[in-house]
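Backbones bend. Our protein:
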Amino acid sequence: MATKQPKLPPHDVADLSLAPAGEARIAWAAAQMTVLARIADRFAAEQPLAGATIGMCLHVTAETAVLARALAGGGADVALCAANPLSTQDDVAAALVRGDRLEVFARHGEDLDTYAAHVGALVAREPDITLDDGADLVTVLHEARPEVVARMRGATEETTTGLVRLRGMEADGRLACPVIAVNEARTERAFNDRYGTGQSTIDGILRATNVLLAGAVVVVVGYGWTGKGIALRAQGLGASVIVCEVDPIRALEARMEGFQVMTALEAAERGDVFITVTGNTAVLSAEHFERMKDGAILANAGHFDVEIDLGELERLAGARREVRPLVEEFELGGRRLNLLAHGRVVNLASAEGHPSAVMDLSFATQALAVEHLVRSGDELGPGVHPFPAALDREVARLKLDALGVRIDELTPDQAAYAHAWVPAPHEE
């Protein structure tokens, strides 16, 4: 007599038969996520998340699966949907449904109506805590279910774009729950943005195009933490890098780092590859497209597909065709411009996103932020809150421990001296 299989939870994934491949992919990622493993072990022993309902609107990747398992192992009821229609790894989604019995609503390439329905599925679960990559879930909750938001313990946000939205809501008096700005944790910005996105963006461009960057002119539009990482990686591969910025301090920093700095309009005539990473809209538009070289490549590393003005690109184009998977060629008066991944976030749409070792730090901060909300969310009040500095240091400490690295500690005298206001004595 066949063994009766447990009933699967509500879900919408592409193909459950992909689960074994997803398990292998998750295992590979987990082996490189040693910090989160330590946190997961503690969560499993202490059950600090018992009774919490968590909705995760993140990129459904192997690394996200490791985080979901850590949260579920800590006692939480967890459900996921995708934060981007092109970022889902279908085999991972299948593994989480079949192996972990988690509610997952994510399909690679889903249309916008399906995407909205998947977000709605998590809204219907009335989460206590939300994890967002772009603030879609928490903003929909505010619009559709304000009574749920009123009793939420809080939310986390791991993108600059999402925090811009949430701070706008806060300024308008619309943000009704505490949000922890995980994206602004020191461990997040210094490692995820600079090293993770820097590498994975270049990886996405190379996978999509197979172009040689050595000798090419790469234009990086935006020089925040992510832009810095992209510029450094492109330079390391032999490209000549131009940086475009609106912030004078960042622009000066880019110049002092050895990059050319100029307006995007000036750079438009010189660039072979353009990478936008500003979090803003239409930073490359018609006036830029009209000046670009034949064969120029356009890639976006920002969260939303608004940085490259797709409407203007389509308006100017006499014809368009797909020349490679996720490479669209637009013909403009005898010139060809090549758009990658439909203008969506290229490191996830054309590659696999951040390396697991980098996401280890990001998701360690997420896990500790969730625990903080469970313990202290009622005390925080509505608004965007910083990631606690003590937790930031704890993530770094755990990483150093995993690497077998020991560092010095201040002696009691040194600690006292570091906080003293009395001037130090000087010898005559």
